[in-house]
Amino acid sequence: MAAVVSITGLTKSFGHSMALDGLDLEVSEGEVHGFLGPNGAGKSTTLRILLGLLRADAGTVRVLDGDPWRDVVTLHRRIVYVPGDVSLWPGLSGGEAIDLLGRLRGGLDERRRAELLDTFELDPTVRGHAYSKGNRQKVAIVAALSSNAELLILDEPTSGLDPLMEATFRQEIRREKAQGRSVLLSSHILAEVESLADRISIIRRGKVVESGSLEQMRTHARTNVAATLSDGATRLSATPQLTAVPGVEGLRIDGSRVQFNVDAGGLAAAMNVLTGLGVSALTVTPPSLEDLFLRHYGERAGQGLPQ
Amino acid sequence: MTGRHAAVRPAGTQPAGRPLTGIALTGTPLTGTLALLRHALRLDRWKLLPWLLVIGIFPTVSYSVYGSLFSSPLEAKALQLSLGTNPAFSLLFGPATDLGTAAGFTAWRVQMFGMFFAALMAVFTVTRHTRAAEESGRAELLDSGVVGRHARLASAVVLAWLASAAVTVLVGLALMMAGSEPAPAFALGSAFGGMGLAFAGVAAVTAQLGSTGRTANTLAATVLGVSYLLRGLGDTLDDSEWLLWTNPMGWAEKILPASENDFRPLLLLLAASLALALLAAWLESRRDFGMGLIAPRGGPARGRLGTWGLTARLNRGAFLTWAVVFVALGSVYGLVATTMSGIFSDNPFVKQMITFRLATEEQLLFAFVEVLLLVLAFIGGVFGIQVVLRFHTEEDEGRAEWMLSAPLSRLSYVVPTVVLAAVGPAVGMAAGSAALATSARLAGSELDTAKVVFQGLAEVPSLWLAAAVALFLVGLAPRARAGAWLVLVYWLLLTMFGPVLKAPEWLLGTSPFHVVPNVMESSPDWLPVAWTLLLAVGLLLAGLAGYRRRDLLSR
User: Lowest-confidence range among A66-75, B448-457, B462-471?
Assistant: First the structure.
């Protein structure tokens, strides 16, 4: 599949602070790409460079086969953007703001606009300064989705939306995807990314530390195994046998209960050991997105650093 | 802290009679005022300092150069005779009551400016901590703490009072150090500080009326503008001294620094401030957080704005306001200009005092008009800079980022602003000078309308330069954009007061307003104006190039 966004070795600094430090990112055509990271990791800076609002210091950036800094106008006909913190004109109504953005794009899909106002329950006659945070966000979402762009760049689009509206938003994004549009979705809401994204990139301190589908990421990550051994006499031999299996980590034995993490390569061998010891109960949990995420931000959660 | 300690303390050990919520329950509407005031003081240190310095030091400069201005007391007396009876100067600066002393001269020269700036300082301070803070959400965080209902308002008003008191003391002390008697020094300081007091009260009320900081500031500034006009007419027109008692500026003027040193009007200003603050508190308890008494109306569901429409819409309020100011000031100035013809005949000081480049006697009237046009031109400069900085506000508040995510080049985004900043002030100058000439003619003056309008338009390149300076800064050094205001104020002070304070010609020449030729001259020298234009175009192009190339500022 063709790449709609392809970034290699992107760096950007503001004064002395390094915002992006050799970032690589690729978004394929037709996919929803989750861009995951906490505040300050460099998500917004990356998106602003993709929009030609900031100029890259070094590295190559291609968007829809164009240079985002040079080909601003032609590229932006095919891109829409939802800022993370939408600021509206205090004196303009929401409807006027939507139509202003639509007009700059050379018109918008009238039917879709009406439909979106309805599904998001947004009153377009309210003046900008009177909208709540969530409603300001909705104005930008409606403006973006009522266009027919090929690439949607969304910077934490659901901040301030209530859970019902968040569900509506997910539904609308799936609908956009079904029409063949590509979406770059920056977020720190793991559930949102987990439910929407085909592929995920995790950014940390201006660098993408992991990228791939959730399944791919899981095969690289350790599976959590918890077992209850049936025979008390063999418990003593469990420790040396399991530590001998390559890829086993964090082994804890507490009475008859055994718990450890194991990578994909060692899973089969570890199972063999457990069967040999005699198992009365066994739980094998694949890593959740949260585990994957915390693996990279491990020191925060008090876990070990990735090696 | 209290909350956390209480939480770990076993039930029943909490000291009797001191429930946790006691402060909030027994608190008055003013609880927390001091804490908020301290917070506001810390926030405002650097914002208030320039105001205090400019207002505090300016009178001393004027005072210090007085000695070098007149070779004899007689000269000063002659000047007073010609100026004291001159309505144009009474209108602009207030009556010249005693130019025979340095203190009297200073009082006349700087009084209006000091009163104006002190009032603006108070207005901006109060609005910043009341309405603007509510609007931005800053207030919500603080007000959810242990804070009484009127604490925010009270802290803002008290802060403005403190700043006004500081102005009074600074002006008084600085003048005394320059050698003035204490009475006139502190009388002048009180005229400034008194205006600050009164307009702290005005702003407290307007902050309750408008639902945005901008509306609140505009309403308060309107009150100030009307005060200035009423005061000016009271000083100028026959049998209308009573007009001075209708507004705070008239009261402050009645302190008459250096001649009467009557401090009683200060009490009136203080009483007005207190009364207005109480009115504001009453209004505040009748409205909800974030809402104004002037209820915001809904807007249309559909819009047809593009970049041009948006620029027009964003500047509509400012444009209409300034248009009214131009026409109103122009008309009033026109009325005054007519009464002037016979006054100055062959007074040499007038030449020195008012303006420059006088060739023959018959052009004296026109020379007065030139000074009045200069005031209009300054307003035009303000408008141009305002339009450009309004454009930058869009970037500052994150809307430019959204706009520029559409298929819109940086250049097409900024062009409507450039055009408006060029056309707006020019239209204002044309309207203002036409109003001036028309009202002068209606009052029976011999002024040539076309010449007056032409002279007004001759100032336009200077206005463009002011706007171009702002655009240059927005394009290349956006964080220093407020410097455009400094440049304009520098030009104004230099052109208005430089010649009186005998500044050297090369220094005067750094103001584009100074080098504008008199169109009545037989061969006016347009070369400096051409330079002004060239410089404006250069700064504009550099600013545009910078804006296209630089990173958009993100919040």
Answer: B448-457
